[in-house]
Amino acid sequence: MNLNIQDQLFIVGGATSGFGKAIALALVNEGAKVIAIARGLDKLAELKLIAPNQINILAGDLVEEETLIKLLELIKDQPVHGMVVNAGGPPAKMVLETTLEDWDKAYHSILRWKIALTQAIVPRMVNAGYGRIVYIESVSVKQPVENLVLSTSLRLAVVGMVKTLSQEIATTGVTLNILGPGSHNTPAINRLYTKKAEQTGLPFDRVKEMGIQQIPVGMLGEAEDFAGLALWLLSPQSKFITGQTITIDGGAVKGIMG
Fold first, then answer.
1. Does pTM surpass 0.85?
2. What's the domain range around 174?
């Protein structure tokens, strides 16, 4: 399928690891141009070497306002066709383990910067009459995941914001959707296995094995497969889908509407 995104410009957060990297590479393979954002300059430089004429890099943490300012300076007057809103999550904790400081940090690391980024980019897309935004959140917004109360709570707020905005701008040609990954073979999953190993005293590998056994399809997902759906949502082909939260979880969510 020709996704018709050749030479289009996309912003990708968390672009040097996991889902972000897989999506950035998939976009490049389709002939798109990418502004890759991550905190580590060395890994960004390695990524740029893959397609130096298609990838532009920005080292910084999108949680910080300074990075958003640099991003807008980098974009200048270029039309932005799509954006992947993606970054790491807070530490794995149970409710009664958390402190108010944990909640304050989670607000900043999960919700606040996404609102700022959305408010900065969406008006540009609306004025152009076209845009695609994919937010990468978590399967926990459909079914809570053990030890992820900070992530679950604040990501639900992101879902509320995205759903509301998608309704407000539905006629503009700009769509916003959320992907909720379940257990995937990426570095992010390890914090859950480490936490469970600490709680149970079991070896990390045994905890991981037990976790995989709980996934109906019997395996971890792969970032490259996840990127395939993200790529379609970032393309003109997805014009009739907006405001949706789609879980990619190997069947882990048990609810009918999962």
1. yes
2. 9-183+222-248
